[in-house]
Amino acid sequence: MSFNFLEKLFYGQSSNHNDFSVLAVDMHSHILPEIDDGAPDLGTSIELIKELMKLGYKHLIATPHVMSDIHPNTPENIKEKLEIVRSEVAKQQLEVKIEAAAEYLLDDHFEYILEQENWLCFKEKYILVELSFIAPPPNLETYIFRLRTQGLTPILAHPERYLYFGNQYHKYKRLRDMGCLFQINLLSLTGYYGKDVKKNALKMLKKGWIEFLGTDCHSMNHIEFLRKGLCKKAFERVLSNHSFYNSTLLS
Ligand SMILES: [Fe+2]
What is the CATH number of the domain that holds 137? Predict the structure, then answer.
């Protein structure tokens, strides 16, 4: 099946969705202030939250990066930022629920996090993990296995962006067979990260491998591209023809 056919399949027709309210929950974003490469200050955090509300979200799970070298965040400092944002949200009477978890890079430091059992997950079982964009960690399967044996369900963030896997879809299948769920970025469907990433995202959707959609919102630039995607009906077929777990996270 050609990519053009897939594209027509997912991108044609008129829209029943002019926002993401059908998802209700965004479980991947970088909206906490001064903690990673997302919101640089509290004002921007609130601005992003208001824009995500306008896009139809009722519940936002902030997932700051945890990377040993660049963003050495911990549950403790993430919770501190969460409380700062929550109090401003309450002050401004914004009707949105804000939670915090994290996006864990599966690097060598993750071994230490596993040993300490000091992580932030959501719904008491989901842990969002990401891989390097350069090469997969050699111990990837070991990490997934250990998370599973510790009672957690790993969600692999943006699998469509790890282009080094190429067409080796059996490698993704192996992770899924081990109990790993997948989350693709909404922006991947618009071509924001390039045509190969978009093609990969559509293929994974077609295989029925995607449980969650996330904004991975870092900035107002991402908001603008999400809004542009809605104007072009880029998300219509995906939202209409697939069901996702996002709304099961509502509480
Ligand atoms: Fe992210």
Answer: 3.20.20.140
